[in-house]
Amino acid sequence: MVQIRKWLLISAIVASMPSMALADVLRHETRYRVSLAGLPIARADFKTEVTGKQFTIRGDITSAGLADLVTSIDAKTDVTGVVNDSKLQATHYMLFYKSGKKERTYDVAYTNGNVTSNTITPEPKRPDTWVPITESDLKSVLDPISGMIFPITPSLNLCNQTLAVFDGEMRMDLKLSPKGSHPFSTDGFKGKTIACGVRFTPKSGYKSTRKDYLYLAKSDNMEIWFAKADTMNVYAPVYVRIPTQYGTVTITAVKYGS
Fold this sequence. Notes:
By secondary structure, this protein is mainly β. The protein has a single domain, classed as YmcC-like fold, CATH 2.40.360. 8% of the residues lie in helices and 57% in strands. The chain has 2 helices and 16 strands. The protein has helices at 2-14, 211-218; strands at residues 25-36, 39-51, 54-63, 73-83, 88-99, 102-111, 114-121, 130-131, 150-151, 162-166, 171-186, 189-204, 206-207, 222-229, 234-244, 247-255. Strands 1, 2, 3, 4, 5, 6, 7, 9, 10, 11, 12, 14, 15 and 16 form a 14-stranded antiparallel beta sheet that branches. It has a two-stranded antiparallel ribbon with strand order 8-13. Strand 6 (102-111) and strand 7 (114-121) form a beta hairpin.
């Protein structure tokens, strides 16, 4: 069950991101289906509201199918921040996670991309193999939700960048590289996507002996497909493939667009 929990968190980091406009007022909803080896394990529903240059993203992730046979899993996330010309910059990120009777809340505040406060409730016990987070790890980082949404600008080079992400516990790098394009069709979108390969590198805030992280860090088969929302002028993920020791996790948008 720990493996499924981590896959759901990674899924939230790299794929459960709604598209967003730079309009004065906008309400938008995006839904994803998460599967393991073709079997459903979770659903995600994200609602976005933009007022002027301020944005709010609220998400609900629930276990389904295979995962529900073991235990129920629920997660809620909330991100607020500012829409800049080239990126979305969070000021606050929260994730509440419940698995069975166990609960945990991650709460992070940002100023100009730097983490200014970070709490985990209840505070977890750290093993001897824990890689501690340093002060430099928390500078110039993205939150795992709005950090995957890219306003379209002349200087945007979508698949040639490294994303420094902090999810409230772990600091990681996601290095994107070009992998062509693929057709994609779902409720609200039909057209070509931009495919990026992803190399996952855990930096700190994790157990150095974690086999699933070590496996993913060695893999070059992780991919994210981004779709363009013309009326919103952004790219956001519509499909993600994550290789694991137990099969491939896929996150697929079942609704995309206004």
